[in-house]
């Protein structure tokens, strides 16, 4: 949570948690109260033209607070954790140089971890010939054959990666080939590193059923706002289904509807289901993180009371 003993570190306030817990509103409010600027740690809000399905923070919701890493990539680009880390580091330095508090806000846990602990990705560069060879094995022999190969080379990573997650299996095999080590052990070691910042790491949470109800309502609102039409436009632009951007929840399911695989009603059901599953995975991820401060929204009678608590806690640690 804190970089104790090193006051030279840049202060960093982190507001994380599962989808639909009100992270963006909290970040904007605390930025106003504490002279801050917000850096988005969301893997979908980076894409231009993908506003509704990503629940992108609007100009009104920003409340005049500068926001970074929103609308900084086109949907046909491959945005990833390495690009995020580079851009986020630069944003932190820029905000701090202005005498403001950098506030990292989002639900993509790996992005937060990459910045907070300055994870080293230099050993994870693409090995194109090997990647082609491994992808060919997956295509011809199936994902199980690829996963079996990983089990021999790196049992720890194989135990942590589902056989159907071909992209991660390939990355683990590449890492093993390039470094002779285990990507799972590498990531564990990186998590043990001391924070690169003097940080406060809030994770917002709430009653699980209440959260799921909020998710369902938000999906209904997205449909009313024009999520279907947003995906149709991206489809007409020729954004390929396998692109990183189209793997986002909401976009992926409606794309399937547009391809005639199921009805729009079924797509909406899948969006709600998959978003609930995603929120559960987010909570699981944040439980693994060290030194986080869990903030149960249900314990506060108003947003004002919640923000007062977060502000007092943050200031007592950062300053």
Side by side, the strands of the main sheet go 3-2-4-1-5-6
Relative strand content: 5-15%
Determine the N-to-C terminus distance: 14 Å
CATH class label of the largest domain:
Alpha Beta
From the alpha-carbon coordinates, what is the Rg to the nearest angstrom? Answer: 20 Å
Mean pLDDT: 90
Taking pLDDT < 50 over at least 5 consecutive residues as the criterion, the unreliable ranges are 1-6
- Tell me the number of helical segments per DSSP (H or I, 4 or more residues long): 14
Tell me the helix content.
Answer: 40-55%
Give the CA-based shape: globular
Task: Tell me about the largest β-sheet.
Answer: 6 strands, parallel
List how many beta strands DSSP finds.
6
SSE series: EHEHEHEHHHHHHEHHHHEH
CATH architecture of the largest domain: 3-Layer(aba) Sandwich
Q: What structural class do helix, strand and pairing data support? A: alpha/beta
CATH topology of the largest domain: Rossmann fold
- What is the count of distinct domains? 2
| CATH-assigned homologous superfamily of the largest domain | P-loop containing nucleotide triphosphate hydrolases
